[in-house]
Amino acid sequence: MEGQSVSLRLPITGSIIYVAVYIPVILLCVSGNALVLTTFIRFKKVRKVNNYYIFDLAIVDFLTGLVAMPLAISNRLIISETTCHANSRSYLFLPAFVLCATSMCMLLAITVDRYIAISRPLRYHVIMTRQKTTKIIIFWVAFGFCFGTLPVWSFGSDPNQWVCELEQYDAPILTIHALVGSFVIPLWLLLLIIAYVRILYIAYLRKDAVSNSRSQRAKSVQWKMRMRTTITSAFVLGSFTIFWLPHSFKNIFEIYLAKDLKSLLAVQTFCEMLTYISSFMNPIIMDGVTINLE
After folding, report:
1. Which is one GO molecular function term here (predicted)?
2. Over 80: is that where the pLDDT of 265 sits?
């Protein structure tokens, strides 16, 4: 296998179908998130503090479609010295690792932001200033980058190991990364869902306080906008959870259950396709909401 220069994992017809299935996902991901970014840049009333997280998430998803998906597709489909040696293969998957980790971090930041907005409505704009929000985003982007680069830290492993068959890359850091993906991420998503249940419960308890008085009509309108933002964020998290949970199974399948190359590629493609779909679902869910945020 190593003697071959370049070959395809699938026959020509299968390869064309494989790429064709991904093309609509890439186009929707790039165009949908480009629309969110354009809206944020062109309309001043959208450029508010709480929308910074949505803007950053749209950047991450846009780059996922523009960079991470094409590289991941080529890595799965092409067998070559570059795509099959452990060291270079890890670098080609690096954009996907980094952008996915950053996306998860942004979901955590959005959850905390929504909790403060609902539980401390009168002090929200004091607590979450433009400077603080910018620093939070920078921190989580840096954290996502550091965690996403773990697979390329191949200490104590063979960087020339051939990993395009059923062989697993024997790297301790990569094992830790897969462990986090299989067990820690589902737990983390569950905690975020519980946090949103708590946020919506607080919102339910507070709704009467801002709607019973005519003099508080303006506050009621603002509250409804915050609730709309919170519910939208909860839908984003929900879709992310649904599309990402199979990816946790993929890591276990690759290590313990994969018996042949066809089933391995099928599971990898299905699970990774779902994670990429979540990148273009975000702008669909947020369509029309960003213009009306607080």
Report:
1. G protein-coupled receptor activity
2. no
Q: Which amino acid is at 181?
A: G
Q: What is the pLDDT of residue 141?
A: 94
| Residues listed for the chain | 294
Instruction: Determine the pLDDT at residue 284.
Output: 67
Task: Determine the Cα–Cα distance for residues 77 and 126; give it in Å rounded to an integer.
Answer: 51
pLDDT recorded at residue 184 = 74
Tell me how far apart the alpha carbons of residues 109 and 206 are, in angstroms, rounded to a whole number: 23
Return the sign of the alpha-carbon dihedral for residues 52, 53, 57, 58. Answer: negative
* Two tokens, residue 60: 């991450």
Measured CA to CA, the distance from residue 201 to residue 118 in angstroms comes to 10
Please state, in angstroms and as integers, the Cα–Cα distance from residue 278 to each residue in 65, 96, 239, 293, following that order.
11, 13, 7, 22
pTM: 0.79
How big is the chain by its Cα radius of gyration, in Å?
A: 21
CATH architecture of 6-292: Up-down Bundle (1.20)
158 φ, ψ to 5°? -95, 110
> For 199-228, what is the mean pLDDT?
64
Alpha-carbon distance 93 to 144, whole Å? 15
Residue 34, both tokens = 């480009």
Other Cβ atoms closer than 10 A to 213:
10
Any idea of the CA torsion for 263, 266, 271, 272, to the nearest 10 degrees?
Answer: 130
Q: Which amino acid is at 229?
A: T
Average pLDDT, the chain: 77
**Predicted pLDDT of residue 112:** 87
Label residue 262 by pLDDT band (50, 70, 90): low
